[in-house]
Design brief:
The protein has 332 residues and is of the alpha/beta class. The protein has eleven helices and 13 strands. The protein is globular.
Amino acid sequence: MSKITAAITAVGKYVPDFVLSNKLLETMVDTNDEWITTRTGIKERRILKEKGKGSSFMAIEAANDLISKINLDPNEIELVIVATATPDMQAASTSAFVATKIGATKAFSFDLISACSSFLYGMSTAASYIESGKYKKVLLIGADMNSSMIDYTDRATCIIFGDGAGAVLFEPNQEGLGIQDEYLRTDGNGREFLQVAAGGSVMPASEETVLNKQHFVHQDGRTVFKYAVSKMADVSEKVLERNNLSQDDIAWLAPHQANKRIIEATASRMKLDINKVMMNIHKYGNTTSATLPLLLNDYESKLRKGDNIIFTAFGGGFSWGAIFLKWAYNSN
């Protein structure tokens, strides 16, 4: 009997309608389009503006997009994982709400939180459930409403982040397609350089934390940039080496969309042709857990069965890693 591997068999997406362009940001904070584009590659980002809607709303929309595209019966879904850095609320599971709302009433669910690496780690987790042989349909969703934790008077962060969601379905494969290898890492010494200090158990919300703007993202951009480039490239090269792959063997690099310069530097370190690099940061900015599935949605028509794809991400914590996957289907 052939070994069971975990393959992505469908994708779905959702981005909010409201477009926050660089030109609009110029009216909100001391910045300009040229400055933003040169340093980040971002031209616009999507923002969820409707009150009372959060990450779960976008996750549900992305999941329903996937479900409708392949005419999937939600009752067939056995596990729903929501990868997010911005859950709807503390204690109550965002994934449980999402699973119920999409009609996956026979599934169990959980949230997976590891900053910008959440979806990458979710891929590993979903694959493990499939490879166990106990589960046949695992829905993995990356969704983040980053605007909920951004200070729009801080030009160091407000220019970077956007809102969005993407979903993928994992199913068993016996053709040798799907996830082949992974190399995942963390280093807690990086915690101070990228964080939201307040709102957790160490520093619960108070009048003081609100006044001090400690519920917003703080980032030491220079340090994060240096670590992101070196770590994303290191783990990607490690996966290539372990699987005897050359740059010519790689069809696509799917990197976390944090900053165009980070993406280009990672590709350069890997000696990979930039035409093999998936990139949509100019349209969405950094959507945290949603960047990788949004890439798959935007590039789906270009992907071919058997394509070798390297996924890599870097996030707060620090957390990072790379996954080698063989694409499982032709979309047209």
